[in-house]
Design a protein that fits this description.
With 169 residues, the protein is mainly α. It has five helices and no strands. It has a single domain, classed as Ferritin (Up-down Bundle). It is elongated and about 55 Å long. The structure holds MU-OXO-diiron (FEO).
Length: 169
């Protein structure tokens, strides 16, 4: 059975992962509006990954005899001036997610819930990948600056990303 304190923290993170999904969906709409099909595809997969992250936590709460309670979600940002700005926001957002996952793991440690600590290791590793993915694209966008041809080549690369449903836990 999951403790009430940890259940509450898990529920807050489920809501935050769905909020992440919502943020990326808004970024996806912006890139679609810019006719950047590869960036749109990359963000579409990010949207699906965030839902998978939320469902991993959701299923875990249920498997531990807890109650899933979903919170309110704020409206996401709707506009950016460039895809560079979008990816600055992606990286900043993933850094926030990392700090939240670390805080969640701290609570699992404090209540001595070893099963939850072990389960959250997957999310801790996933955040290394999430930040790295965002950093790599951001670094390329900073090199590209105003070079439209280079931007279109990167867009073509990002069109190749495919969604592999993560196996969580
Ligand atoms: Fe669910 Fe992108 O972290």
């Amino acid at each position: 059975m999951i403790s009430k304190e940890l259940e509450k923290a898990f529920n807050e993170q489920i809501t935050f992962e769905i909020y992440s999904e919502y943020i990326y969906l808004s970024m996806q709409a912006y890139c679609a509006r810019m006719h950047l099909a590869g960036f749109t595809n990359w963000l579409d997969i990010q949207v699906k990954e965030e839902r998978a992250h939320a469902m991993g936590l959701y299923n875990y709460v249920i498997s531990r005899g807890g109650k899933v309670e979903l919170g309110a979600i704020d409206a996401p940002k709707q506009d950016w001036n460039s895809v560079l700005e979008v990816f600055e926001d992606v990286l900043k957002h993933e850094q926030i997610v990392t700090s939240r996952i670390n805080a969640l793991a701290d609570i699992a440690d404090e209540v001595k819930d070893r099963a939850a600590t072990s389960f959250l290791d997957w999310y801790i590793s996933e955040q290394v990948e999430e930040e790295n993915n965002a950093s790599e694209i951001l670094a390329k966008l900073r090199l590209i600056k105003e070079d439209a041809n280079a931007l279109l080549l990167l867009d073509k690369d990002l069109a190749a990303r495919v969604f592999n449903p993560p196996v969580i836990g």
